[in-house]
Amino acid sequence: MTTTTVVHLLRHGEVHNPGGILYGRLPDFHLSENGAAMADLAAKWFAGRDIAALHSSPLERARETAEPLAAATGLDVRLDDRLIEAANRLEGRHVSARSLRDPALFRHLYNPFQPSWGEPYRRIVDRMVDVIKHARKEAWGREAVCVSHQLPIWMARMAAERKRLWHRPDRRQCNLASVTSLTFEDQRLVSVGYTEPAAELYGSDPVLPGA
């Protein structure tokens, strides 16, 4: 007999960011009104599931996304630095195709395979794998939810699917309040699923990658 355990990676909802900057790990970036509604829809998607553990990145937008699910399940939200957004030397800047032509940024952009402008992809994978294993052990035979950010979730998925880590940020399948689900039989990964519980609230404006 095998034991089935599911670890869900939930991306946070939309952030109030009128300045349009790459906020990265900066403090005091909270969910917008629309983002709070996304968090509610995500919590409803988990209704009826056997959630045994709830972990979150310490950043405000992730914690706020976890709150409706915590209220629905009665679970405490455990903050885990391994789920935090990727470090990025460009945070605090307005990032666009035009801004990336600024010579002052060139020294950060020489190696897209690492990437040279931020936390190495392999380091992100290592910390995400650690927290997924921890959550799987804690929720053994049941389900766990880890609230994180776009790039860490995407790196975890690429590693799970044994795909290369370098990629085009605009091709990540990890939308706001989306759920990437890793299903294990004992310790063996058997499937990767993806769903968008808050798709009805998506607007037409592009979302900054790495948010």
From TrEMBL:
<dbReference type="Pfam" id="PF00300">
    <property type="entry name" value="His_Phos_1"/>
</dbReference>
<dbReference type="GO" id="GO:0005737">
    <property type="term" value="C:cytoplasm"/>
</dbReference>
<dbReference type="InterPro" id="IPR050275">
    <property type="entry name" value="PGM_Phosphatase"/>
</dbReference>
<dbReference type="InterPro" id="IPR029033">
    <property type="entry name" value="His_PPase_superfam"/>
</dbReference>
<dbReference type="GO" id="GO:0016791">
    <property type="term" value="F:phosphatase activity"/>
</dbReference>
<protein>
    <submittedName>
        <fullName>Broad specificity phosphatase PhoE</fullName>
    </submittedName>
</protein>
<dbReference type="InterPro" id="IPR013078">
    <property type="entry name" value="His_Pase_superF_clade-1"/>
</dbReference>
